[in-house]
Amino acid sequence: MGNSSGRMNNKTTAEQAALDIDLNGKIIIVTGGNSGIGKETVRVLAKHNATVILPCRSLERGNEAKKDIVADLKESNPNFDENKLKVMILDLASLKSVKEFAINFTKEYNQLHYLIANAGVMAGGYDTTTDGYEITFGSNHLGHFYLTLLLTNVLKQSKPSRVVVVSSDLLGQAPNPFINVVKGYIEKSNGPEKQRNNTAMENYCISKACNMLFAREYNRRYQSQGITCVSLHPGVIATNLSHSFPNWMKFLMKSVARSFVKSVEQGAATTIRCCSLKDNEIQGGHYYRNCNDVTAQLPRQFRLNGDYNTFTDEQIKNDQAYLLWQLSEKLITQKNFTFNLNDNSNEEQKSNDVNVNANVATSTSTSAAVTTTTSTKSVDNATNVNDNNNYGNQTIEEQQ
User: Fold this and answer.
1) Nearest in space to 29 (alpha carbons), one of 129, 121, 150, 133
2) Which of 15, 79, 348, 399 has a 20 to 30 Å separation from 250 between CA atoms?
3) Measured between alpha carbons, how far is 244 from 250 in angstroms, rounded to an integer?
4) From the centroid of its chain, how far is CA 307?
5) Burial (CB count <10 Å: 0-12, 13-18, 19+), residue 305
6) Do 236 and 171 touch, CB atoms closer than 8 A?
7) Please, what is the angle between helix 269-276 and helix 36-47, to 10°?
8) Per residue in 363-386, pLDDT tens?
9) Residue 30 in contact with residue 88, Cβ under 8 Å?
10) How far apart are CA 74 and CA 69, in angstroms?
11) 3-class secondary structure, 259
12) Right CATH for 5-337+374-398 from 3.40.50.720, 3.40.220.10, 3.40.50.2000, 3.30.70.20
């Protein structure tokens, strides 16, 4: 796949980052692939012969993006097969929709070589997912977490495969120490709550820290099974996500845009590079920026302590990435969702839970609260996603 990543920089475009990669026969999912850097990511991957799935909240918007991409690619290749692009329904802000997408995908495809978690949301005001979680955290992290775990089996049977998670350098603005944030969520069995001082930007930064930590922990668990997972910062790109920024930030971006804002083509480069790097070049669990591994440059509280990939569960049971994983499983299972694609009985399970609780309440014996947690390896038996629609006051877009 060509050149060393060290020869690439912040000016590198997605086309350049792809080098001579041939993705013929490869199946790729790109969440948020209907606009911005997600759309450019899809275009470049399709140009290099991949079959690309565009999971969108709206089929209409997804098909509009597909039409644009096909028209562009046919200019240079009149024989381009538009069937290599497929639009499917997925709403990251709904665990039910995430599971339905995973079920539908695995009915049609028995392989998945790259899962690119690109989509993101920044809520302009406080809002929740359909499951009651703060929408920025719920969409950016929890939706992608559930999606990835539901598709883990198909990723394993397609090995070597990769999961590429689009995070952001704004993770550096997350609360410090971040581990206390995670512990607080575990204690309350919730994510970010509605608070006077909990701004949209703070929730976004929290979700981006979660993206990076999830990629690190996922890689530790599955690298030995043929899946490599990395996270990345694409750069600051002038996309629709900036519409929900406060006015002072919009002004700042405009005043200094020429010095650091990337084009969409440049913004998609690091994602593409994390696909084009050879298996012996990519560093699983690491964090990339400008097509290079910059893990050592992460804020101090997020830097690696030793070779995280070799640590056991016992060695890292108090690590923030490990605890985030426990929290994420808890937030999903407490809503009666499972990690088994063959089990789509959420509504039935809810009904059964109501009956069980009623029986317990009428019992003469003293009731005891029992909490079950999913085994850290149980998701092996289980295992898309956003488009540029509005959830009320929030805008869905690629990460910046």
Assistant:
1) 150
2) 15
3) 9
4) 23
5) exposed
6) no
7) 40
8) 333 333 323 333 333 333 333 333
9) no
10) 9
11) helix
12) 3.40.50.720
Let me know how long the chain is: 400
pTM, two decimal places: 0.84
Closest by Cα among 151, 139, 399 to 270: 399
User: Residues 185-210, buried b or exposed e (16+ Cβ, 10 A)?
Assistant: beeeebbbeeeeeeebbbbbbbbbbb
Residue 270: what are its φ and ψ, rounded to 5°?
Answer: -65, -35
Hey, which residues are catalytic here?
A: 204
Q: Is 113:27 a contact under the CB 8 Å cutoff?
A: yes
Q: How far apart are CA 114 and CA 34, in angstroms?
A: 17
In the chain, domain spans:
5-337+374-398
Among 73, 103, 104, which residue's Cα sits nearest to residue 87? 104
- Tokens representing 391 are 């959830």
Between strands 394-398 and 119-122, the pairing is antiparallel
Are β-strands 390-391 and 161-166 bridged in parallel, bridged antiparallel, or unpaired?
Answer: unpaired
Neighbours of 230 (CB within 10 A): 27
Find the range with the poorest average confidence among 181-185, 275-279, 288-292, 301-305.
301-305
Q: Dihedral angle at the C-alpha atoms of 394, 242, 204, 55, nearest 10 degrees?
A: 60
pLDDT given for residue 238 in this prediction: 66
* CA 313 vs CA 321, 323, 377: distances in Å: 11, 10, 10
For the sheet containing 161-166, what is the strand order?
85-89, 51-56, 27-30, 114-117, 161-166, 227-233, 287-289, 292-293
Res 295: pLDDT: 98
183 burial type by CB count under 10 A (0-12 exposed, 13-18 middle, 19+ buried): middle
Angstrom distance (rounded) from CA 42 to CA 31: 10
Q: Nearest CA to 59 among 28, 25, 101? A: 101
* Coil vs helix vs strand at 219: helix
User: For the segment 152-176, what is each residue's pLDDT rounded down to a tens digit?
Assistant: 999 999 999 999 999 999 999 999 9
Axis crossing angle, helix 320-333 with helix 200-222, rounded to the nearest 10: 100
